[in-house]
Amino acid sequence: MAKPGKTMSSSMELTFQPLAKTFEDLTLDSGYGDMAGSCRSSVLSLSPSHLDTPPPGALWTLQQAVGAQGCPQCVTERAGRHVLRSRSWATLPPVEWVPWTEKDVGTVMRKSLPTWEVSPGLVRQVSSYLGRALQRVALEAQRLSLRCAKCTKQEVQAAARLVLSWALAEVFVSAGARGLSQYNMSAEEPWSCSKSTLCTLDLSVGRTFRWMLEARVAPVIHEHAAIYMTAGMQALLELLCARLGPVPSHRRGILPQPDVEDEQEQALERLLNSDAELWGIFQPYQHLICGRNAYGVLVLPACLTVYGRRSLARVSRSLRMSELQALESSLLATVVDSITELSALVMNISYYLQRLTALSSGTADKPPFHQGALSWEPGALHTLFYYTQRGVQPHISDSHGIQLTRERPEAWLPPLSEWLRVCVALAEHRHSLTVDSGDVQQAARLLLPGVDVEPRPLRVECCLYASKLLEASVVKRALCWNLAFRMLSCGRTDLVDAAAALLGPDGINTLDQQGLSPLMYSCTCGDEAMVQVLLDSGASIDLQVPGSGQHAPSAHPETRYWTALTFAVAFGHTSVAQLLLDRGADPNGCIGDEGTAETPLHLAAAAGRFPLVSLLLEKGADPLCGTSCTVGGGASLRGTTSAFSLAAAHGHRVVLWTLLSTINSDIVSLEDMLEEGLVSQNTRRPRSGRSKRIRQRALQGALYHSAEHGFLDIAMQLRQQENVPWTLHPWLQCLSTSFSQQCWEVMHSLLGDFPTRQDMYSKELVHEGLPLLFKILKTCQSESTVHQLAAILSGCYGPYPVPPVHEDVAKPHTTLDPAFLNNKEMCDITFLVEGELFYGHKDLVSSASPGLEKLICEASAWSSVPVEVPDIKYKTFQLVMQYIYSGAAEGFHIGKQEALEVLHAAHVFGITGLKRHCELLCSKNISPSDAANVYRQAKVDQATELKTFCEGYFLKNMVTLLDVSSFRRLLLASEDKDSLGKALLHTLTARMQALNQPTTKETMV
User: Fold this and answer.
1) Residue ranges of the BTB domain (predicted)?
2) CA dist list (Å): 731 to 708, 747, 764
């Protein structure tokens, strides 16, 4: 650990002093008086930018920092005490379920680790660790979402930057951006496949959305937030696998499975214990342990160390090695002696990181910062000093003194680099130009055990604007505005006139840096009295948050174009919304049919606030507002824009039916008006048709989102009550959900709505639907449902006949005249079959049958004894010998009852031509009553052609065969690798893939 003492502080002061003076013009006086020295109140910090993921092991431990006040053994002892203290730390609550299965995790791991034989134990362990990372990101996103009452991709991005290191956060955010780009630009038909498929992800976006809802991350979850969360989690999983690395070639395949599982789990533990970026996020504690590995050693990412940088030569020419080492030591410092020292550390770290960014030759070795600067307010430095100041030294304190507070053990304090990372991420999420005291307090809650701070609400931000780059008049105006906004948000109605005078010509309609007016802040807080006063004083009721960042640089992207009514609805203040609507507020939030922003009704429907939904509809809110701009009928670039889809996606059934009843009554009343001639038919009929089309598209979107997120009841009622047509993907999702929940009646209803033939040969049905249908067939106890499944599977097989078995073109062998068959006078060998003698010719039989040749060789020592042929009937043996002597199947007759026995004999004796001929005979004579027996015999005799034919016959005639007890027993036999269900699945999959041709489908329609 780095504990900058007097000597270290002095050396750093000497090193940094010239550089600090060149930087002096960018800061103001500190205001600390004589204590400050070279300290500055506004210290330049830089914000995270692009950073490539460092290779495995690319983390560097600063040995100087570790040994600043002792040897490495001292660090080990301190780490040991740290582990003992960790037993009293608060832990994260257990997660009941995660939005992925072990199969999903295993799929990603096997793709990322092609040389590994990934064991089930390793998959379970990795899934558990990944769940903790998900929980941490979701907890931070939950706190950040309180600011605008919804969770968007901005909250997930900021949460990832708070929890993860600079490198891991960049991996997380980049993966989310890629997934979202593919989702928006997909060429797939709307609602034709899952969101994960559109994003090319293996983990489920729909299940992640449902998990975020049940975890109460926010009242409203934006679908882009779920995409970012899913893609980021999968990227973390892939990065973990990449750092595990390939299996050494000399270790592959030499260990038994139990040893392989143990070795893989040990390799994972070794990686996590030594990787400071991964170890902390996978721990069960509420606070985040970062900047240290499992042994308590402080570790700095390679992108911030001179030894890990590719452009070392170029950097060394500009910066002295001592300066770089001092920078690294500063980044790993955990405690300071004075606020002067802390200010100097923060200032010089920021300055050097800016220089390193400028000197970097490319993105691979570029530090994770932007060129833009963030200032540190004096209060932020004071708060940070409170958490990082050194405790009382033992040799200074009185041994008999009274200790009133418990000192923080320095062994688990985070390094200064982590404080800077978290504070900058918090300030960036607020779109602020400064790091304030609140950011530091929020960082302390995250980084220190036992610290809790209230989440930051949406309120007037107090910024001192201390930068010298601003003119005095600009600073004065900003401070006056800040004072006026605080006067208007304090609840004092008698200060309105004075505040309006401070705001200038726009008065109380002035917008601050966040794009909000005083009326919007009052609506956010639910201050009904202040809202009334502001409206009476002339506040514009439909004023919108600017859509351009130039006019509102600190505005949250998701609040752009919001009105005061939108804020009141978003935060659930019904009485304030009632007041605004009574005073003439636009119930649609000034969003037209082609608008892309969310209306108040959208937010109320998504949050499930029934009173607000009813109020807005009563005041004339349009449920279809914004629906017509939806791209492809699915999701726009800003996400779902249908109030119906939002209500269905969040599982609010009552709200959805309220919306449906409103739009249905509107359309009916319009038709009545047309019939009565009260409205011009030429002008109104197109709108009626438009409303119906938009309504149908909105309901299809609602059905898709409810199915994707697992709300089975909503999807079924949309289908049954509103007659919304199925598409394949929602149908499959609902069928899977009903099967997992064992809703047999719902499943029966779904099977009755099997999709049309044009969807029958799609990839999704073949690869996902067929396995599900066979699982249901295996476990379902309802006769009617089983017969439904049989009809569906037979329909999937198609109208064409089962491919026949063809004769084998066998290599001809020597033949004899039939007169020599079983001729005692002209034979040279005798066979004993069922106690009867059969005469033959040794050379002919041996050349035609390897099995009989083996029997003849075994009996050659006893030439006078007949060759005994066991386990075969005399008549069957006679037919086999007849085929051998004739050499072909022409004129060779085998009865239906004898075909299976001859097939078995031909298999035992190795006569391939006769075996194939018997397969052909069995396939021609097969019937429902003996089909199961033929299939069993084909499996025993390895008659591949006959087995495949039987499987096709089963699929073609499954409805009829279900009434045959022998077939049902065969179908429902115990699950194993050779079960009939798996064989039928394989055969049907191959059949449907072969039929998946445009010309074939046209012929079949």
Assistant:
1) 827-887
2) 10, 10, 11
